[in-house]
Structure formats: C-alpha cells, structure tokens
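[Primary structure, fold]
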Amino acid sequence: MRPTVEQLRQLVALDDLRNFTRAAAFCGISQPPFSRSIRRLEEVAGIALVAREQGRVELTPAGAELAGRARHILADLDAALQSVRELTSGRRRIRIGILEYVYALIEPLGLDTCAHLFAGRLLEPVDLGGMRPDRAVLSGDLDLAFAAGCDGEGQWAHGVAATPLHTEPMAAMVRCDHPVARLDSVGLGELADNSLVAFDRGHAPFLHDRLADALARAGGRAQLDHHVATLESMVNAIRANGAVGLVPASVRNRPLRDIAVVPFADAGSPRITLMLLWRQCETQASYRAFGAWMRKAIEGRQASPSGTFEPA
C-alpha cells in the first residue's frame, strides 16, 4: 500500500496545528475519521509518525521527515493540477479570492485597472464565501487571495506566501442615536453592556481571536455575541437592535446612512492587516507587482478618500 494524497495533507495539517481536532476541522472532516486515517498512514509507513502525549501532539523524527517531503509533493501536485485546468480554458486565468474589505479600501478603483500586470491573462475575482483563503490557495482553487490578518501577522498554512498590504486600527460602528456615537473615541471595556457584532471567524481567524482576547483583558462582560458575513448584514444588525459592530476604521469612508464609526481609545487594541496570499512554489514576479500596486492604490485612496487615484 501507498499513502494517499489526503493522508499526506492530513499529516501536514497535523504538523502545522499540533492538535487533532483543529487539524481535522482544517481538513474538513471530524476528528475520529481523521485519527483513523493518521493511524492507517502509520501502518503504511511501518513506523510511528505521531507522538501522542497527554495534552500535546508532536511528530516523531520520522513523521517530521515525511511531513517535510509531503509539502513538496503536494505543492508540485497542486501546481500540476492547476496547469491542467489552464489547458482546458485555452487562456491562463488568474483567480483572485476577494474579501468585501478590499472594496472598502479601493473603491471606486477596480481590479481591471491592474490587468496590465498579468500580460493579458484574464483576472477572475472569486468571492471567498465560506472558504478559508490559505486553504483555497494551497489547494490550487485560487492563484491569489486577499486575507485579513492581525497587526501584520497571520499564521497561515505552510506553503503559503503572505505579504501585508495595509494595516489600520479597528473601530466601533453604531447607530447615530447610540451613546457611543457622541464620543471621540471609546474603550473596549466601555462596550461591556452592549451586544457586540463581529465578522465571521472563517476569513480572519487571527483577528477574531485577538479581538476576543482584547475584550477579555478589558474586563467587564464585553464579549462577541453575534457574527455576520458581510458589512450589509452588520449594518442591518446595528440598525435593527442597536448593537455595536467591530469594523476596520476605513469603513467610515463608505456612505452609510445614520451610522457612525468611532475609533477605539485603547492603545493596544487589535489592528487589522489586509494581506495577499499565494503558493510559495510560485515565485511569480507579477504577483509581487500586484501586491505593490495594491499597496499604492490603498495608500492613495486613504490619502484622498473622496477623490480619485490611480497608481502607475
């Protein structure tokens, strides 16, 4: 018997996350079948690959060796599959995973403005939906993906390159008749008696967890009560029940009726970072040029939120 591709992906996920439950969730299956699959892989290898100690999971030297080789195998396989997909299209497409946050930063500038960076190849924006961006990139479903990290950081899956594009503070979004709307800034601890709304954890797990930690440190009863997928859903929740939304400060540049955006007063409050992800095995100069283009576009848009800007 030989290892399956899925077993290799599972071993790499376990090496990355060092936890059976989280690694199983990352691979899209429940923990019991994940554990059985790792056991079968050990039987195929004829040696223990995982050291299972109380409360800890570590790969054995043999497991670490196999995981390291598996990363290269999987990267080559994903690149080969992507090339085959491109043959059927007749023309190379660049599939870019898009977050709604991107449009908040660069509107009214469109992504088609940077098509010249890709030498005539088609740009295909893809709504990330429920996809985790690093998984979609690593699997070859996307060539590039925007992702939300925290304070310039993000523990993305091994094999994924990440470059920061823009970092900014978070803020509180409220109805204009909410008491917070009258403040110049607000502390996280002052939100304890409010219903708090955050974006779903899937697209920005590190930011989500950092916000939860910051609220816990701020004391009181402040906690994340509701989660939404889009800015429209958040605005609707705020208008309907007077909740407080946790949003990037740049949202204030969007025309939102009867809505105020108030910065946080806490010096250590989390900051959101927009990042661009791609597979490390693809050293595409055009990807790096696109990242540089995006940084200039965002800088220009932030410097002149009501004007127009087009990077060279």
Notes: Confidence is low (pLDDT under 50) at residues 306-312. DSSP finds nine helices and eleven strands in the chain.
